[in-house]
Amino acid sequence: MAEFSEAELTDAVLERLAGTPDPRLRQVMSALVRHLHAFIREIEPSEAEWFQGIEFLTATGQKCDDKRQEFILLSDTLGVSMLVDAINHRKPSGATPSTVMGPFYVKNAPELPMGADIASMDVGPKARVSGKVTDAAGRPIAGAVLDVWQGDSTGKYDVQYAGLDGMRLRGRFRTGNDGRYDFVTSLPVSYPVPTDGPVGKMLTATGRHPMRPGHVHFIIGAPGYETLVTHIFPTGAEYLDSDAVFAVKHSLVTKFVPRAAGTNGPDYSASYDFSLEPSAQARQAAE
Amino acid sequence: MAEFSEAELTDAVLERLAGTPDPRLRQVMSALVRHLHAFIREIEPSEAEWFQGIEFLTATGQKCDDKRQEFILLSDTLGVSMLVDAINHRKPSGATPSTVMGPFYVKNAPELPMGADIASMDVGPKARVSGKVTDAAGRPIAGAVLDVWQGDSTGKYDVQYAGLDGMRLRGRFRTGNDGRYDFVTSLPVSYPVPTDGPVGKMLTATGRHPMRPGHVHFIIGAPGYETLVTHIFPTGAEYLDSDAVFAVKHSLVTKFVPRAAGTNGPDYSASYDFSLEPSAQARQAAE
Asked: Taking CB atoms and an 8 Å limit, are B17 and A206 in contact across chains?
């Protein structure tokens, strides 16, 4: 018969995990149990507090659906997503830095021609965003796909509108031999992460604001290169110093320049060049 | 503008939590971030592994409903529930020890007369369970309510049968002046914790069996005493040395004695006396 004292319990659980066939899973589960038990031993929760924790996690899972990922939002607001990002992108090489994906990405945005306006249904100021996708040496990458998404001029993503069918402010652009891209979107505005769920309650209870500085989301992929998940932020955007998800990086901030008086075209224009790292496979092949 | 390096991120999140108005919440959230980040720094998850974690937590939340609490099951199988139990019941006083509540408790079981058979719909061997509820000095406690629940002779709880309305193998019993209780139930059998959800997958992946030794659940409450959440286990039950939720305690194991040949009544009988601790309020009033 096996009875475990308070002191023995952690070792008892670790021993039970020792037979995990997959060595990586054994390592992850053992570390999880050690850190989780250390957390419990430090805070010594009452049974009511433990149950509050159970209820918070349950509500977080139940807030998720095909358009909302509350556990990603929790990971984002606790700095975990950016920590995982930092761990996975340690080798600075002049490549454009990555940042969080956030909870609003939707697959299969329409592929559009260069210059297309993804914000035609929106009413606010427009911005032309253009530049190049290159390798570390500045050579243009042909056939790179830029998957772009953004909130509208009121700070909301299409998926946040109940009953809205179809996509808005989303598009995919494929570079030609010059590596250039070019599209029109809304001028990014700051907005709150969704606050109607458990994460919103956590932010309120901890006295934190839910705001993010305005930004345009990108996933950029090309054969032979690491896929880049990133944003660009307008210079001077509000909340650049207190992003609710800790995702700002200096080199992702770029000027959105107002249109010169007497000229035509979008209200603002921004130019940003993305530099991609070779994929691990491509690096190995080159060695 | 605030950009945080891998090394700076944890402190940046802690600083953001420093304004939490409630001091206990500030302590809990800060400890959570330190331990969670330490876990991430130790295992260095790939982005795919991080997303597997997000998906596991989401599925765990989504498996919960009014009859199923998968996060409690996760807490149980990772030894967290018994650790919280140990932390909250440190003062040994001769009182009966507590153990996990498990995921199958249902409120408002019918109040029944002493001697009632809560297993009348079940087909397996029966057991009479009886004894006293007393204080530490062995004095009977009148008006104690024993809330009893149990799996049936196939190892399933009523809530695990799809479409079964009404309760089975549940009842509440209220002691009189002699502190005695007495009811008939099924002979407890070992059974698996639910394995059709994320926790079941985790047990399989870590090479662990899902079995619990047979037991009868009790919540025992009386005015002026700490409410006791516990089980009794039959002596010799299978899995007493490897309970999937680490919940066995020596002093909760008791003999279920077969009926003597030629006598009447249930197939087995077990006698167990519960001893309750005074509530914190009652202890303060006595000082």
From this structure: yes
Give this prediction's pTM.
0.91
- Ordered by start, the domain boundaries in chain A are 9-44, 70-286
User: What is the amino acid identity at position A135?
Assistant: D
Query: Which chain B residues are Cβ-neighbours of A29 within 8 angstroms?
Result: 202, 206
Chain B residues within 8 A of A21 when measuring between CB atoms: 207
Per residue in A193-232, pLDDT (tens digit) is 999 999 999 999 999 999 999 999 999 999 999 999 999 9
Flag if B83 and A248 touch (Cβ within 8 Å): no
Which neighbouring-strand residues pair with B147? B172, B219
| Nearest Cα residue to B271 out of B147, B114, B129 | B129
Is-contact A100 A82, C-beta < 8 A? yes
Domain spanning B70-286: which superfamily? Aromatic compound dioxygenase (2.60.130.10)
DSSP B114: T
Burial of A208 (0-12, 13-18, 19+ CB in 10 A): middle
ipTM: 0.91
Query: CA-nearest residue of chain B to A55?
Result: B71
Tokens of residue B246, six digits: 């680490």
Distance CA B228, CA B135 (A): 12
Whole-number Å distance between alpha carbons of A148 and A156: 15
